Amino acid sequence: MSARAVAPARAEPAGVEPGVAARTLCTRCRKSLVRGRAFAQGGLRRCLGCTLRHPPLLRRSAVTALAVGSLLVAINQGTILASGVLPASLLWQIPLTYTVPFCVATWGALVNSRIE
Ligand SMILES: [Zn+2]
User: Fold this and answer.
1) 40 C-alpha to center of ligand 1: Å?
2) Pairing of strands 44-47, 114-115
């Protein structure tokens, strides 16, 4: 008997990358869904790109960013804003303060909707 291992039969049809199940396609763009990078939204399977462009997800993340970001700006920059003397560093600090909760909310939505 040869020491060379026999390759297992391919589970995927021809033209489909290993690890990609042919029956799992993104319901929006019809792209093949790779294991661990498929997300369920409203009972539909979506790829990462379509999930990140899903308007309800973006709306929820924006609302979270507005609420949490405003609170963080008040906590971290409130004294400076109340003084009336606004340093130029606020031009990047305040937008960054709103960006963090947006990213966290989006990340949480992705983790919670990911299909194993
Ligand atoms: Zn897609």
Assistant:
1) 11
2) unpaired
